[in-house]
Write a structure and sequence with these properties.
The protein is of the alpha+beta class. Helices cover 36% and strands 24% of the residues. It contains eleven helices and 13 strands. A five-stranded antiparallel sheet has the order 2-1-5-4-3. It starts with 17 loop residues before the first strand and ends with a helix.
């Protein structure tokens, strides 16, 4: 497929660094890029720090990391002359209130969707199959991310309490099913995930859909914190009359000031802005509270743990057991929704998932 040529001069006045790269060299860079990389110009080699951030990714793609000490995200789009790279500061939008952050992220997601749709435009000739699949994966993942944002906005408005439907359930079965789903996705994406249950069955009373969402939020946060080279996991234990669910991850320990602000919604520690509304841990706290439970977060010796303690409520005699099942909502599987901002796009190849 022949790429459409673009007028690169439209990026001259952009506040964000924009570069066009081809075969390890710079074809174009705007003024913001020249300021970020002093001495850079057309014909120069790609800055080493930028090349390390991008690695071997193929457009359309995104990467997050640091470039010469600057935390940023890079989006990469295919162009006629090479790969178009746009760099954005990772802290952008992190301190905005939830709804404003949602607007920012929706704009980003719609831009990614628009880019993928343009990449599938057949008017320029036949579309290469492997390339078309990459764009389709980006489209599918973008839809799941938008659904995730809508879910988190529902949380911000207190929608979880209106969905509260406690029934008898097997908490161990719910943890097992959730862990098996995450384990399968981690095998596809190369992430290191482990899980263990101290009991094969644990009857209690609760809302399995809200509890599943709570588990997935905890696992999503741990997966982001661990990164591709780290480890994360889930453990279910029984301590007296309480069930204890622990989700842990390796990586840089949180500072004390961040631990004290973890459940503050928009005041939570600044993570990658693509990570929802910053309400994930607040959702964990609220779901635990609905079930009469409590949440503890600790970080030491290179391991961060989010621990949820829930009272075990024996079901009334004769009350039917509600078996945990995957909750499809309009065809969107919850595990793929909640992990959509951390899984790689190739996981959203629906031919592999069916």
């Amino acid at each position: 497929m022949r790429e459409k040529e673009m007028d690169l001069s439209i990026f001259d006045g952009f506040a964000e660094p924009v570069l066009l790269l081809r075969e390890g060299r710079v074809v174009y860079c705007n003024r913001a890029a020249e300021e970020r990389f002093p001495g850079l110009g057309a014909g120069e080699e790609t800055p080493v720090a930028l090349a390390e951030l991008l690695g071997d990714i193929l457009p359309p793609a995104a990467a997050a990391g640091t470039v010469d000490g600057w935390p940023c995200t890079a989006t990469v789009q295919a162009a006629a002359e090479g790969s178009l790279v746009v760099l954005r500061p990772r802290t952008e939008g992190a301190d905005l209130p939830g709804p404003e952050r949602l607007v920012l992220q929706l704009r980003r997601e719609t831009a990614s969707l628009s880019m993928a749709i343009q990449g599938l435009d057949p008017t320029e000739g036949p579309v290469d199959e492997s390339r078309a699949q990459r764009y389709l994966n980006v489209l599918h993942q973008g839809l799941y991310r938008i659904v995730r944002m809508a879910d988190h906005l529902d949380l911000a408005s207190g929608g979880d309490e209106g969905q509260w439907q406690p029934q008898s359930l097997d908490l161990a079965g719910l943890c097992r099913e959730t862990a098996e789903q995450v384990e399968g996705l981690c095998r596809m994406s190369g992430c290191a995930f482990t899980w263990s249950l101290e009991t094969s069955g644990l009857l209690t009373v609760g809302d399995d859909r809200l509890l599943e969402r709570m588990l997935l939020c905890m696992l999503s946060n741990a997966m982001k914190a661990a990164g591709r080279t780290g480890r994360f996991g889930l453990k279910l234990a029984v301590r007296g009359s309480r069930a204890v669910v622990t989700v842990w991850n390796s990586g840089r320990p949180l500072e004390e000031k961040d631990l004290s602000r973890l459940f503050g919604g928009a005041q939570a520690p600044s993570l990658d802005p693509k990570a929802g509304l910053g309400l994930g841990l607040e959702l964990v706290r609220r779901v635990a509270s609905l079930h009469g439970g409590a949440v503890l977060v600790e970080s030491r010796e290179g391991v961060t743990r989010c621990v949820v303690s829930l009272p075990i409520q024996k079901p009334e005699q004769g009350e039917p057991l509600r078996s945990p099942k995957a909750d499809y909502s309009g065809g969107f599987l919850p595990v793929l929704v909640e992990l959509s901002d951390v899984l790689p796009p190739e996981v959203y190849n629906f031919e592999d998932l069916q």
